[in-house]
């Protein structure tokens, strides 16, 4: 699972950089869903991989900050 998290972090960094070059807002959802060890918080997952209802509430509350 640690390797998967490293891959996710690398992909997110590439997306963040691309957004900067394209002048597009990057919304960091990942950091809102992980625990202090960098893995998906058990409170936000059904099975360690898929987001549950509480996870989607976190995602939604972050996204609405960017919607006019």
Explain the overall architecture:
The chain is mostly helical and 68 residues long. It has helices at 2-22, 30-33, 53-63. The chain is flat and about 35 Å long.
Assign an overall shape: flat
Mean pLDDT: 91
Q: What value does the Rg take, in angstroms? A: 13 Å
Residue windows where pLDDT falls under 50 for at least 5 positions:
none
- Indicate the percent of residues in helices: 40-55%
Largest sheet features: none
Helix/strand class: mainly alpha
CA-CA gap between termini? 37 Å
Number of helix segments?
3
Assembly of the depicted chains:
single chain
Strand percentage: under 5%
Outline of the structure:
The chain has helices spanning 2-22, 30-33, 53-63.
Attribute tags:
single chain; 68 residues; mainly alpha; 3 helices; 53% helix
List strands and helices in order, with pairings.
Layout: H1 2-22, H2 30-33, H3 53-63
